[in-house]
């Protein structure tokens, strides 16, 4: 069965809107450092409350998905490729800051999108 580009986009958009449990080990903000030729991922800690929402471990406040959020990251991971960045996080970081397989899958896909944007000179927007 062949799937065209429009169908692929529709499928990915639907899958992006599915419910997943948040990772209690934290979240990442991914961005590009074009001057250095790097894919970067800032890691932030969080806790998950009894409603399944991510909260600031220091204040207990729910973390909003959109808008401005003033928090300090714990670590910045970098890589020249998606694979190098993934290895930095999953194999070299001790402890690994990812505890959910679906989170790891998401990050791998995002790192690949970021690498493509870095190589092509296009804008990277984290999903």
Structural class: alpha+beta
How many DSSP E strands? 5
Order of helices and strands: HEEEEEHH
**Number of folding domains?**
1
Helical content class = 25-40%
Overall pLDDT confidence = 92
Low-pLDDT residue spans: none
Fraction in beta strands: 15-25%
What is the radius of gyration computed over CA atoms, rounded to a whole number of angstroms? 16 Å
The largest β sheet comes out as: 3 strands, antiparallel
Calculate the terminal CA-CA distance, rounded to whole Å: 27 Å
How would you explain this protein's 3D organization?
By secondary structure, the chain is of the alpha+beta class. It has one domain (21-120). It is 34% helix and 18% strand. It has three helices and five strands. The strands form two sheets. It has a three-stranded antiparallel β-sheet with strand order 1-2-5, covered by helices on one side. The chain has a two-stranded antiparallel sheet with strand order 3-4. Strand 3 (47-48) and strand 4 (54-55) form a beta hairpin. The two termini are 27 Å apart. The model has no long low-confidence stretch (mean pLDDT 92).
What are its keywords?
single chain, 127 residues, alpha+beta, three-stranded antiparallel beta sheet, two-stranded antiparallel ribbon, 3 helices, 5 strands, 34% helix, globular
How would you briefly describe this protein structure?
By secondary structure, the protein is an alpha+beta fold. Helix content is 34%, strand content 18%. A hairpin with a 4-residue loop joins strand 1 and strand 2.
């Amino acid at each position: 069965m062949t799937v065209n580009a429009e169908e692929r986009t529709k499928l990915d958009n639907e899958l992006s809107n599915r419910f997943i449990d948040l990772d209690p080990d934290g979240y990442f903000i991914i961005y590009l450092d074009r001057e250095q030729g790097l894919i970067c991922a800032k890691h932030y800690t969080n806790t998950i409350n009894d409603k399944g929402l991510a909260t600031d471990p220091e204040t207990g406040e729910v973390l909003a998905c959109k808008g401005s959020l003033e928090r300090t990251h714990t670590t910045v991971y970098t890589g020249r490729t998606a694979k190098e960045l993934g290895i930095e996080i999953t194999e070299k970081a001790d402890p690994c800051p990812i505890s959910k397989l679906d989170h790891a899958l998401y990050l791998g896909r995002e790192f690949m999108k970021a690498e493509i944007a870095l190589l092509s000179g296009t804008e990277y927007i984290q999903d």
